[in-house]
Amino acid sequence: MTSPTSTPSWNAPYTGDLSDDLALALRLADAADAAAMARFDARDLDVRVKADDTHVTEADLTTEEAIRAILGAERPDDGVLGEEFGSSGANRRQWIVDPIDGTANYLKGIPMWTTLIALAIDGVPRVGVASQPALGRRWWAASGLGAWTDTPSGPRRLRVSTVSDIASASVSFQSITQWDDVGRVDDLLRLTRAAWRDRGYGDAWPYMLLAEGRLEFVAEFDVKEYDIAALVPIVTEAGGRFTDIDGADSLTSRSSLATNGILHEDFLSLIRPR
User: Fold this and answer.
1) Which of 58, 78, 132, 210 is the most core-located residue (most Cβ within 10 A)?
2) Which pTM does this prediction carry?
3) Bridge partners of 116?
4) pLDDT digits over 161-211, tens only?
5) Rounded to whole angstroms, how far apart are CA atoms 229 and 249?
């Protein structure tokens, strides 16, 4: 993948046609949903601890395998980066996959987990799908094609909120532990005192709430490429802005900050370490 310093802005327009790639990403999500739901809340679910002390289940593995099998057949020349099986192939087009974002919820039978599927072109996330089959929800986007979610009456286009002052903003900070681990608790407290409402919703869901116009700020630390790549086009195509915690367009800096765009610079100033 191209280094962040040579990567165009995530809000830069894309002139190609991503319709086929988006359609494929949605089919990948269908296959992933079937694989993940087949073992959700199973009493005999196989759960192991990885070298980094995070959990992995048999469903994480079979879900990523299902996605990779389709990509191998339909996009054999594209690169793939997945949480469970690493990176394969080298191409300016790279699919970035988190088969189950929220494994801790999945293994406890809590339905708040998401399959994340992205296509990055020249380092910029251009296609994104976030699917929550246990809750019957899905969000998707591609550069120039808008951001969407499914409803009983059909797809609905997403738009971020127009809230223009932090005192009226609703924010999600993911977890206190994340901020404490990087020595930023004081910044978090300053944020929560300035905002109207704060909650730690966690994982991919708050980014989707932001894209739907229900939150104005989401930020977290210790994120990998596969945790955030699919979220970037959904947020940006909904009219929001997505950067790292310092305001840079980067998948590799291990932090993320998504806002409704209007308040992005104000939030950056507010949470900047004193």
Assistant:
1) 210
2) 0.95
3) 98, 130
4) 999 999 999 999 989 999 999 999 999 999 999 999 999 998 999 999 999
5) 11
The pLDDT of residue 91 is: 80
- Return the number of other C-beta atoms located less than 10 Å from residue 1's C-beta: 20
Domains and CATH numbers, the chain: 17-152 (3.30.540.10), 166-271 (3.40.190.80)
What are the tokens at 105? 């919820």
CA-based angle 241:244:246, to the nearest 5? 105
What's the Cα-to-Cα distance from 83 to each of 121, 190, 215, 228, 255, rounded to whole Å? 19, 33, 27, 12, 17
Q: 57 near 103, Cβ under 8 Å?
A: yes
pLDDT tens per residue, range 17-32: 999 999 999 999 999 9
- Under 8 Å between Cβ of 209 and 180: no
